[in-house]
Amino acid sequence: MASLFTRPRAAARRRTASPLLYLGYGMLAVLVLTAIIAPIFLDHAATTLTSTANSGPTHAHPMGTDSLGRDMLARVLVATRETMLAAVFSTAIAAVLGIGLGIAAWLAARRVREVILRLIEFWVSYPTLLVAIIVAAILGRGLAPAVFAIGLANAGGFARLTANLAAGISTREFVVTARLMGVPSGRIATRHIVPNMAEPQLILIAQAFAGALVELSGLSFIGLGAQSPSFDWGALLNEGASKIYTNPILIVGPSIALVFASLAALFVGDGLAAAANPRTNLRRARMLHHSGTELAPLTPDTLLSVDHLTVRHDDSGRELVSDVSLSIRRGEVLGIVGESGSGKSVTASVVSKLLAEGLTATAARAELSGADLLGRVSGRELARRVAMVYQDPGTALNPALTLGNQLSDVLSRALGSTRRAARQNLLERFRDVLLTDPEGRMRQYPHQLSGGMKQRAMIASAMSTRAELLVADEPTTALDVTVQREVLTLIKRMNATMGTSVLFISHDLGVVRALCDRVLVMRDGRIVEAIDDVAHMTPEGVVHPYTRQLLEATPIVTMPGRDIEGAAR
Ligand SMILES: Nc1ncnc2c1ncn2[C@@H]1O[C@H](COP(=O)(O)OP(=O)(O)OP(=O)(O)O)[C@@H](O)[C@H]1O
After folding, report:
1. In a shared domain, residues 348 and 216
2. Which residue range or ranges hold the ABC transporter domain (predicted)?
3. Which of 27, 550, 564, 466 is nearest to 271 (CA)?
């Protein structure tokens, strides 16, 4: 078991680390090594006065010498330590202060929170450099006040980001549940809220670090930062700028160093943020043919034929679906049952061409009404052929749009009809699925409808494209028994009146028995039994012990005479 779980995770980490992250690490390593080594070996050359003042590039001084004859290359390399340390400290001050304040705003009582939020808004409304200059001018000259001033100036950005993210995350179900279970606020903040901000915070830290390098140089440039005899890249730029017309090489070194360090920070920040999100950088789903298998010709009434389908998880190489074959005739309702994780949804995702990233499907054939599902099928063609109804209609609907807007938009794109015609079509389908006040529903947002109503709306949307195949992935699991029955009735009606074939996925054999013509039983990614006479299946009549177990364990939904067919009439 351990190897099954540890290997894929290590592989995922390896794969999600982008080449830019490695480049950033490499650049950062160069900077760190320079910061450690240069002051040890080059301090003498960087600080000793010589008679060759204001020299241009020579063999002995590739970046020239300053007005006191000190080697400019050595000075740039030695300044790496002071500049990097200053940038690290100011970024740390900004991140700790800002994230702390953002979390404090979220933990505080409502009124205090409002005050903190207004304060943060005021803070970020001024440019960072301006705030840093004002603070540094108040604190006095020197690198330490400059570091603190820049940290303080950048903290506002962290505070705003943290407060905004915390406001969103704190309403999510897992936070609400933790609160109900009595988890203290501080622990909710550290365990549930902060880890969910990792990606944007890492990007902001990288940006703040890159910004701090430039801001520190800016403060040194105007004489507020590093004071002689200490020097950072900004101070060197300041010195070089005064000789820009007579000896321009002097500003090249500190400028290159600044750009190099900023890029290193951005590459590392972006790369770490991407790696912190397991969904980024996944390889696109692949659907491939495998050859060498003899295939029987399809009969004219075959709508869908999937032969020898295998789906693998790219990282672990694990087979999620193994050698599955299925077919659906026109007008037929095929059920797939199986316990959780048996591969039902992954199989359905191949049929609807919605295979998840990081998975590879291979099949000898996957054809839907003549269209090769393993090849290119345009979105519009696919929408005309396949409609989907999901387990949780709430996640399939956009909470920011009214039902009318989002469903008619999809419909007009799928059918190429005008928006007006699409709305009219949808309105009629809303009536077909017996949604009360269909005009009013068109203007409502998803959260204003019950789960059953949302599922009816999804079925209406599926009906409106007159798709040849409806893929219904556990469409009744999230609904109560009465609504379940209504939804099953609607699907059966769609099948009976429009001739739509249905691939119906469920873990409930009782529900499947009430609706389907044939059933496939899946276990561990394989089809272990195919039942053709669904209405009369009994524990004694099935072959596979797992099907028998399922049948014995499932309370059969009583629909006398499969009365959902009656309802369809
Ligand atoms: N995107 C993915 N990446 C990696 N593994 C996945 C992915 N999607 C599904 N799986 C794995 O594939 C297997 C089959 O999952 P699938 O969702 O098809 O199960 P299911 O039979 O539909 O289960 P349920 O009834 O719980 O929805 C599971 O082991 C699951 O962990």
Report:
1. no
2. 304-549
3. 27
